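Tokens for MFS transporter. Go.
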Amino acid sequence: MRWTVLILLFLGMIVNFADKSIIGLAAKPIMEDLGLGPAQWGIVGSAYYWLYPITGVIGAAYADRLGAKKMLSFLMLTWAVLQFGVIAITALPLLIVYRILLGAFEGPFSPVAYAHADRWFPPKLKGFANSVLVSGATVGSMVVAPLLVAMIAGLGWKIAFAALGVVSIVWFFLFMLLTKESPVEAYEKAKKKKKLEKFSLKDLKYIASSKTALFTTLAYFSTYFIVVWIATWMPLYLIDIVGMTAGQMGFAVAAIGIISVVLYMGVSVISDYAFKKTKNWKLSRIYITGASMLIGAICMLSVIVYQNPIWVVIAMCLSKGLTYAILPIGPTIMINEMPERGGLMTSILTSSGNLAGIVAPLATGFVVSLASTQILGYSLSIGAMASLVLIFSILFMLFARPNSTEQKEKMEEEAS
């Protein structure tokens, strides 16, 4: 059952990020069809994240009390309805409303999925399990890009969106039929316990006092600038600046996705192995992840100087694969800070990180519009994002100190 749950969560992440990224792959036909410019497209990209951080926290908090299986299934059904509704979009306002609603109902999925997987895997496999989920995000946003591009070209962008709605319905039935809420031992134990109490001021004080939670969230936040830029702007960057055709762009995006999965899963496996051998959270979770992010940021900065198509693809593979290391390891660190509030802790992480999703598309759109040349506009946006990751990866390594069990008990006593 453990691996069945992980596989279906992996497939759910594919659907989640395919829903999220298809907008970037369909950017050209949508902009031409609705007559949109770069600044307006920036608003479309940003709109997805306007409610995303809020609903992420609320949905994950309810999932801790009501059950992850019910929450994940409900979310998937809402995506199906929204993707079918794309057929009715005829103007920019309707496109923005669709993106706001899709972001609102997709916000809780990642944190709830991370917390759900965490219940099924022992500590020595948690990093690997989360890396599998993050790889689902990469498959959905990048590896399936050639298929999505072909669907957009052959069927039109609206039908391609609706096709993802069909996939959501199939996943819903598989998840309901093939999975359970929790492992048998945890389930039997949970039946004997009182219902989880509501979030309290004591919990808030505990979270606020954790430097590890703060700097993990900041590292995640900085990385999400790159996450959102890759989903919203990289397809256009590869076509307009690097000079690729739509077909070449699709395969380049897929190649970047596949190689990056290998890289950040490799970092997660190394982190798990280091933890298994040393039981040292600082070494295994902080230093390995932070160093990976730092190297990835430097790789992204390099495309500003050297824009050869082959090197751009290589650099994007390295930057995405290495900076994304925080995505699977970050939830493990946050859950360790307050295990009984796993869904809430991961939602704070992902929702705070997704605040970058509000800023990044808008900022890039306006910078590209206002810059004297497109190359300058894209270079400025890439430089700003990479520098942010560089700074916060260093701060993450310096100040994040995951707690041992004894330290957590002491902090809880001080907070109360």
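The chain has a mean pLDDT of 85.
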